[in-house]
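Quick one, probably user error.
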């Protein structure tokens, strides 16, 4: 079969990859759709991110959905032809964190399309892949394969919302309105936030943010002063979802957060310098959030029941043979929100 494999920065190839028959407890999945994530773009544009670098050819992709093509020995509850979203996480189930139910912190995690370990874990941008049956989550007939492939980023944001704590009646600020920021808006709205304000440095993602439920959108590049009214009385926002990974966005939000506010850092970035005096004086709570665990199942259930709509994020679907064109489009924030490959 064929897949989309990264060799080094800007060296993306569509080439033959191995077919692995399913072992006991595994299934072979015929992939239908795969979304290009920010980490996929980092591998393509820069050969990695931070200390994580591509050291050997690796199939990209972890936002994927398809149908069951073959069942391994002992698999029950799934059937040939069944449509599924694929959870890219495969924790070891043996380490101390797995035993505590903190699977996202597994010390021997195998996460699809990741160069964090060597040999790298091959990803899902290929015509077929083999995975644990536990990673295949059935989707309803009313959910398209494109929507099902959005389960992974939705799960990331559901986990971030859980880290934030109760959002009912809260005033929420979201900085950075790429797919993760937009889905954070969706999750905050689902959790009962009273008001959601979104900021970005470009108009196109802000338009999507408004469709996802943001009451107000602010282009801080054009109107940096527009956040100032929210600084009244020591700040008004109860929760910040910082989805840009940019120090300026995080620092700029400190003045508009009320005392005791929760900051959930969703976006990945480099080292940042923070005003610790403000953090202390306003008793702000800075919380990290990493991947997801049970939220993947929840993401699929919410889509199956029609309780969330991710379709406004879906910009384009291109055949996987046109992977380079798709990656170039995905890297252009003025034209794209979520670009997917079809297989």
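Nope, works fine. Designed sequence:
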């Amino acid at each position: 079969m064929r897949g989309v494999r990264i060799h080094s920065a800007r060296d993306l190839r569509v080439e033959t990859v191995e077919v692995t028959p399913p072992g006991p407890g595994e299934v072979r999945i015929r992939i239908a759709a795969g979304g290009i994530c920010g980490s996929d773009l980092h591998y393509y544009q820069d050969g990695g991110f931070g200390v994580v670098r591509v050291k050997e050819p690796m199939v990209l992709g972890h936002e994927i959905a398809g149908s069951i093509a073959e069942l391994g020995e002992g698999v029950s509850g799934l059937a040939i032809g069944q449509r599924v979203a694929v959870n890219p996480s495969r924790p070891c189930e043996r380490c101390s964190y797995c035993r505590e139910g903190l699977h996202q912190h597994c010390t021997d995690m195998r996460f699809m399309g990741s160069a964090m370990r060597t040999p790298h874990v091959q990803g899902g941008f290929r015509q077929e892949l083999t995975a644990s049956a536990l990673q295949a989550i059935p989707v309803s007939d009313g959910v398209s394969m494109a929507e099902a492939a959005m389960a992974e980023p939705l799960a990331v944001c559901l986990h971030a919302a859980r880290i934030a704590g109760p959002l009912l009646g809260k005033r929420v600020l979201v900085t950075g309105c790429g797919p993760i920021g937009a889905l954070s808006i969706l999750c905050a709205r689902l959790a009962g936030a009273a008001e959601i304000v979104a900021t970005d440095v470009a108009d196109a993602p802000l338009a999507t943010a408004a469709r996802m439920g943001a009451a107000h959108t602010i282009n801080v590049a054009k109107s940096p002063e527009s956040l100032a009214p929210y600084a009244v009385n020591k700040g008004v926002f109860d929760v910040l979802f910082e989805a840009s990974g940019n120090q300026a966005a995080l620092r700029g939000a400190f003045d508009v957060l009320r005392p005791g506010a929760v900051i959930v850092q969703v976006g990945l970035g480099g080292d940042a310098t923070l005003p610790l005096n403000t953090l202390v004086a306003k008793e702000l709570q800075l919380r990290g959030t990493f991947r997801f665990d049970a939220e993947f199942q929840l993401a699929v259930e919410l889509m199956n029941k029609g309780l969330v709509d991710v379709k406004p994020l879906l910009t384009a679907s291109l055949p996987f043979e046109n992977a380079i064109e798709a990656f170039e489009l995905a890297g252009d924030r003025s034209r794209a929100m979520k670009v997917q490959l079809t297989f």
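The chain is about 25% helix and 30% strand.
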